[in-house]
Specification:
The protein is an alpha/beta fold and about 325 residues long. The protein has helices spanning about 5-10, 50-65, 105-115, 120-135, 195-205, 215-220, 225-250, 265-280, 295-310, 315-325; strands at about 15-20, 25-30, 35-45, 70-80, 85, 90-95, 100-105, 115-120, 140-145, 150-155, 160, 255-260, 285-290. Helix 4 packs across helix 9, helix 5 packs antiparallel against helix 7 and helix 6 (about 215-220) packs across helix 7 (about 225-250). The protein binds zinc ion. Pfam families: ROK.
Length: about 325
């Protein structure tokens, strides 16, 4: 029997469409139970307004569905979105990056596709992927801290993701009354010092020299630039304070650091471990580890949301995906 005929007679394999919606790009992928089949990136067009950017999300879902091989059939959609996200209601409460307010994402994507929709916060989705496939695999309690454009955490406690109406882990804002003005309307928020965006902005504000992101500031600090060194140290100091607070509140023994700034490696992690250790007395010092999924964590997390929505047994999928991540056999697994 010809091979093509054998395939033609096989039942179609289930697959999910996963979108990691960012303020600049939507990263999408199509995955079956063993790994990624197709992937792509689309500009979000957030500046064109909330309806347009949501239209881009629906168009991207259609693009991903059209990219599905004929041997596969879609069984679910997974979406990870930035901002204040209420997973239980399926609503994006507020996203500064996308301009969305009280947007019933699940209802609208379900109406558009007729497929079950899994929905989550981008940081919590990335954290779940790290927990199930990457740096946190096999650990019941961990806190994931994303240090990128902003600063946010995801709490996985007693094997459960803590959501609290979308506000759990919003550590980047509030808590102080003095300092630099913040986009949230407050002052001196941790995010105004301890984020990749803040590091670049604060260096330029002090020197008048434009830089190409936090990575550029770190390179200048290594070359002996005193301002770059101070800005970097300030960020690590504030991040250390935030991480120590998270350990004091949750008692976790493992902190996973993700987001763009983790690419700095030990230049970030070594002084961060020191700052955290200084601030703890009765608590055991947690292991502070870098995320391993990199920029793909949100997409992997969205794929898991899609499988959960489709009510398909996750255990064999988690095993296959974790193997793919470990062996780096999937293109872009650690991009
Ligand atoms: Zn703020």
């Amino acid at each position: 029997m010809p091979v093509s005929q054998t395939i033609g007679n096989s039942p179609p394999q289930p697959a999910v469409v996963a979108l990691d919606v960012g303020g600049t790009f939507v990263k999408w992928l199509v995955a079956d139970r063993t790994g990624v089949l197709r992937r792509g990136t689309t500009p979000t067009r957030a500046a064109d307004g909330p309806e347009r950017s949501f239209g881009v999300v629906l168009d991207t879902v259609d693009t991903a569905l059209a990219a599905l091989p004929s041997t596969h059939t879609p069984v679910g959609i997974g979406l990870a979105v930035p901002g204040t996200v209420d997973e239980r209601r399926g609503v994006c409460v507020y996203s500064e990056n996308l301009g969305w307010r009280e947007l019933p994402v699940v209802e609208r994507v379900l109406r558009h596709t007729g497929l079950p929709v899994g929905f989550g916060h981008d940081v919590r989705s990335a954290a779940t992927a790290e927990w199930r496939l990457g740096a946190g695999r096999g650990i019941a309690d961990q806190v994931y801290v994303s240090v990128g454009t902003g600063l946010a955490a995801a709490l996985l406690l007693d094997g459960r993701l803590v959501v609290s109406g979308g506000y759990a882990g919003e550590i980047g804002h509030g808590g102080t009354l003095e300092g630099e003005p913040c986009t949230c309307g407050g002052r001196g928020c941790a995010e105004t010092v301890a984020s990749a965006a803040a590091i670049a902005r604060r260096y330029t504000a002090s020197t008048g020299i434009p830089v190409d992101g936090a990575r550029d500031v770190l390179a200048r600090a290594r070359e002996g630039d005193a301002v770059a060194h101070r800005v970097w140290e300030d960020a690590v100091e504030v991040l250390g304070s935030v991480v120590a607070d998270l350990i004091r509140v949750t008692g976790v023994a493992r902190i996973v650091i993700g987001g763009g700034l983790v690419h700095a490696g030990e230049a970030l992690l070594t002084p961060l471990r020191d700052r955290v250790r200084e601030r703890l007395t009765v608590h055991p010092t947690a292991h502070i580890l870098p995320a391993v999924l990199g920029g793909a964590a949100g997409s992997w997390g969205a794929a898991l949301l899609g499988w959960e929505a489709a009510d398909i047994d996750l255990d064999p999928i988690l095993t296959a995906y974790a193997d793919a991540v470990r062996t780096r056999s999937e293109p872009g697994a650690a991009e």
